[in-house]
Amino acid sequence: MNVPHRRYNPLLDEWVLVSPQRLERPWQGLEESPPEPARPSYDPGCYLCPGNARARGSRNPAYTTTFAFDNDFPAVVEQPAAPEREDGLRRSQAESGICRVICFTPRHDLTLATMPAADVRAVVDAWAEEVRALEARDGVGYVQLFENKGELMGASNPHPHCQAWAVAHVPTLPARKLASQRAYFAAHGRDLLGDYLEQERASAERVVFENAHWAVLVPFWAVWPYETLLVPRRRVADLASLGPDERDALADALHAITVRYDNLFRTPFPYSMGWHGRPARGDHPCWRLHAVFLPPLLRSASVRKFLVGYELTSEPQRDLTPEVAAERLRAQPGRHHLEGS
Ligand code: H2U
């Protein structure tokens, strides 16, 4: 479909405008500066490296695998928060919770794309355990796990890490996904993402990578140029429910997609990645665990997609089709471009 059209996102119940011809327009706008040169394996000035002092004085242990700690600058806190208010159309709600930071490895210079498979598996285990432990705490309604990678995405530190924010309310996007998956399950008796995965595997057009337990695809409704969806072949609703083989296969899938991202423009590919597991409370047979990768780069390592004018005021718009994006990612070698060089 090489002409402008709209596509529906059944998970978020919203539309995206697809304008493939827009990539032909000349670009005289911002070019991002090239990423910083190779990093050292240990940086004495890094707040997240083993043995170093953090910004508020705590000292990291000399950790040798993953390491998680309470965020020193949390977005939510456990103390009793502001009371609820309703004043006409002016409504506010108390919010409370816990913010954690999870370092993937003691090595300052690595990423999910360049870490050994066994170490990525350790990250998967740390994610599952962090989410499980946070969900077990009183008053937690949802745990959002996310990684902001690269300066372009506003990461404040290049040391490989992610964050987990446990909050009392189910936030806006997971709440919308809950409503959509619930409605679909009520109407069809099957889960929405399971049916979607089956349809995509049948045509294979948008599938980038598959192994025995996971698939990575550019969703039909992708907004960001090289956005991908990582989804398990079995309906599992949260990270902690993944079995050992599924965790190994997840490490393999994470490696596969992040390597292809780096290879695409031969740069450490920036992205925001988020896990969407089921809400912490209640039974959710409709929910299938999934992760989204939302990378901003469009044309090269230095030209990004801006979601501004029409996108901010009307609806998201993308410039290349999800099918072309999937084809380009699929064509990338599974071996990292820096490996062996
Ligand atoms: P980002 O790179 O995505 O901003 O994540 C880094 C997090 O680490 C950030 O939330 C926390 C910041 O608050 N942090 C600490 O908790 N202690 C520090 O000493 C530095 C950074």
Word description of this protein:
With 341 residues, the chain is an alpha+beta fold. It has one domain: HIT family, subunit A (2-Layer Sandwich). Helices cover 24% and strands 22% of the residues. It contains 6 helices and 16 strands. The protein has helices at residues 117-135, 172-188, 192-203, 244-264, 309-313, 322-330; strands at residues 5-9, 14-18, 67-70, 85-87, 90-92, 97-103, 142-149, 161-167, 207-210, 214-217, 228-232, 271-276, 290-294, 297-300, 303-304, 317-318. Strands 3-6-8-7-12-13-11-10-9 form a 9-stranded antiparallel beta sheet, with helices on both faces. It has a 3-stranded mixed beta sheet with strand order 1-2-16, with no helix packed on it. Helix 1 (117-135) packs across helix 4 (244-264). It starts with a strand and ends in an 11-residue tail after the last helix. The relative contact order is 0.17.
Record field, number of beta strands: 16
Domain unit count: 1
Helix content: 10-25%
Please count the helical segments: 6
Computed CA radius of gyration, to the nearest angstrom = 20 Å
CATH topology: HIT family, subunit A
Q: CATH homologous superfamily name?
A: HIT-like
Biggest sheet: strand arrangement? 3-6-8-7-12-13-11-10-9
**Uncertain segments of ≥5 residues (pLDDT<50)?**
none
Based on secondary structure, the structural category is: alpha+beta
- Overall 3D form: globular
Bound molecules: 5,6-dihydrouridine-5'-monophosphate
Mean of residue pLDDT values: 94
- CATH architectural type: 2-Layer Sandwich
Quote the beta fraction: 15-25%
Order of helices and strands: EEEEEEHEEHHEEEHEEEEHEH
Under the CATH scheme, which class?
A: Alpha Beta
